[in-house]
Specification:
By secondary structure, the protein is an alpha+beta fold. Helix content is 54%, strand content 19%. It is built from 7 helices and 5 strands, in the order ααβααβαβββαα. A 5-stranded mixed β-sheet has the order 1-2-5-4-3. The longest helix has 41 residues.
């Protein structure tokens, strides 16, 4: 059976029925496991950096799994059927992992190391740091497939991985809250202000990165002097 009949009701909506189906629950379990696989990979990379280079490029890891309602709405917007197979075939961001880094260069370092791992398959890459969105949003987006190891088989599951600096994550969080508020007056003005803030934050990221580099060079010179 693919359903639990006693849990179904004639008044259930299509999404409620889908939630009660075993294949849907299994699919969401698979996405959750894939999120854990990706998170663990970055935790390991960060631990190695801490020991070998005395630097933690990763500040935080945030994960999110799309809700059934969000999944249904996105399939509907794209004109796709509401089914487990449709989710597998058409949605690649059900599982999401956000990597918050200290500096822009840490984003590229971590993403390159992550993609060099043998069991990570890159499906799509969008660099909004090099080419920001019109509203000023800057982030590196990867769609990857990673393996999950189940009792009877190994499966490749897609995960969306977003990389942001601390400052840009702060901006994106507030921009999201502002953009989804209702009945906002002076919307063009607010959009312009948000764009200005995003540009200023990007400049601040670079300045802080340069300070970090200068400190690194200073420490290197001090070590050399002590050896001499």
């Amino acid at each position: 059976d693919t359903k639990t009949p006693e849990l179904l009701s004639p008044t259930d909506t299509p999404m409620q029925i889908l939630e009660k189906m075993r294949p849907f629950r299994e699919l969401m379990m698979q996405y959750e496991c894939a999120m854990r696989e990706v998170s663990t990979k970055f935790e390991v990379l960060n631990a190695e950096f801490s020991v070998r280079y005395n630097h933690n490029p990763l500040e935080a890891i945030k994960t999110r799994l799309k809700t059934p309602v969000s999944i249904a709405e996105k399939l509907n917007r794209n004109g796709k059927p509401l089914s487990v197979s449709s989710i597998r075939e058409n949605l690649f961001d059900v599982a999401g992992v956000r990597i918050i880094c200290s500096f822009p260069e840490d984003i590229y370092t971590l993403s390159d190391m992550f993609l060099r791992q043998d069991d990570v398959k890159l499906l799509k890459r969008k660099d909004y740091i090099a080419d920001p969105k019109e509203n000023g949003y800057r982030s590196l987006h990867l769609i990857v497939e990673v393996p999950i190891f189940l009792t009877e088989r190994t499966m490749m599951i897609p995960v969306e991985v977003q990389f942001r600096t601390i400052a840009m994550d702060f901006w994106a969080t507030l921009e999201h809250k502002t953009r989804y508020k209702q009945n906002i007056k002076d919307e063009p003005f607010i959009a312009s202000e948000l764009k200005t803030c995003a540009d200023q934050i990007a400049k601040l990221d670079i300045r802080m990165q340069e300070i970090h580099r200068a400190q690194g060079m200073q420490r290197g010179a001090q070590k050399t002097a002590r050896r001499v």
